[in-house]
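Exercise 7.
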Amino acid sequence: MEYMAKLLFTLALIYYGVYEVEGSFCPAGCHCQMMGDFRILNCPPNGTFYLIQVPTPFPAKAVKLVLDNNGISVIKSNDFPKTGALLMFLSIQHNRINVIQEKAFQYLTGLQNLNLYNNQIGSPTINTFVGMIQLKNLQLSKNIILRIPCHALKDLTQLKNLKLGQNKLTAVNSCMFNGLTNLKQLDLSNNRITHIEEQAFDGLSNLQELSINNNYISKMHSDWFVGKSLVEVRMSGNPWYCNCHLWSQYLETKELVTSSSCMYDNMCIRCHIPADLRTTPIANVNASFWESCSSTDGLFGDNTLHCDSGNRNCTIKIASRGVSLNNTVPQTVMYLNLTANPMPYINRSTFRGLGNLISIQLSTNNISTIEDHAFEDQNQLVIMDLSNNALSGIGEEIFFGLTSLETLNLKENNISGAINNQTFHYLNSLSSLDLGQNEITEILECAFCNTTMQKLLLNENSITYIHTRAFKGLSDLEILNIASNQLTQMDFTQFTELTALVTIDTSDNNWKCTCKMKIQLTKMIASIYKSVSCERDYFCVKCSSPNELKGSFLHSVLLNNCTGNSTYTVTESTEHSTSGSPGVFFLQKVFVFLTIFFCSILCF
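Solution. The predicted structure, written as tokens, is:
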């Protein structure tokens, strides 16, 4: 009887959370191995069981902890107590981490390797990585990081390898990597970076490998590479603007980087602009193209005009709000940069006579008004950047005449209301449109019908409604981003006609999951993707309601008795189990109570 009592008590401890191995507690669901006096823990998902939090109590003398492929969403400030000071390797990749509480890793002073790959981590704070003074390798790729605050990595003085690829970074500032004097490898590839400050990599004197490939970078500064130990720089897959400035910076870079040529394609700078050089490696451009690069400067009034000697590439800095460009800018100009000026409006005379323009950069002005037919002379224009201005609406005649426009950036304005079938109806050649970070509320029927859209960004708006035929006719659409809006419902069957679609980002919405949505989503997946693994969480629809589905991916949830929007019974597939549900937890407590109760009777 006493033996049975001990057996029952041991079973209770196992079910409740810990069991004993060689005199030391090992969390439930984990495999624990001894290595001398130290422990190695691996806690993989097992059938219907997966972890939803870091296991407790934290085992003393643990040197390696692997929590991959579980359902952990929050790293709490007390998950890693002082007993974790000996931990050297921690991997929590392929989970659902979206919150890391302040100073969560502060006691992991001996940690050398931290792997947080493929989670939902947003921007860290200055206290996220505090105390990690021995960290050498930090893997943060495939998250949703928008920015790294200044001094957020200040304690990581021993860091040698930092991976930030496949995030949502848009810029690299001069203080992002302060203090990382031992860094040897830096991966910033596959983000949305448009701008890197000249001093962004200052202080990284030991840097050997830099990856900035597959971003939206068009300009280069040789200062990025000065004072480094660079052996390899990967720069391919960016829309490089091949002008005299880039050519001079490229020549300086060749002297600073061992591998900066096109010996390997991932290091190659291929021109995106001008159009006649598109895809051509800058090193292969005919020497005669650069003969005009003596860079002459001209002045008009208190405003400054910089053009190359061929008057094809011009940059203007405007001192007054009322400057007129016609009769001032050479009519031969093809690439016009008006970034960061105090322009409040664009009227029909602003660009009159400049019919050779291929690219206009108008970002970071204060443009609130654009007159109808303001670009009617620019029928050769391919690229226009109107981002970070004060536009509140888009008139139906604004883009008249822009029949060759391929790329339009309207990000970070105040555009509100609905997008209808007249908004972009003149833009027959439009293939890339960025409307992110505005205040758009609705996407109406056939909103982009007359375009040849391949990339459409609608993220970070206030969209509550998307018409069932909003994306009609977009047979070439490859990338669609509707993340960070206020969507609760949408007809997913409309995507079955988008045969070229590769990526849909639906993250950070308020999806109200119903049977109808489940059925539509299933049809879409079967038609386009065949199967979905949610390796990338933005690829899937995550439910916000009802409560019993909150946090679950809709495609992995089984909704029994589904007929339209009817009531349903909830069951989860084996991809994400319900082992952490209230019902299961109640049964666990009942089991423990009964076991301990019978044990007390049998023991005494």
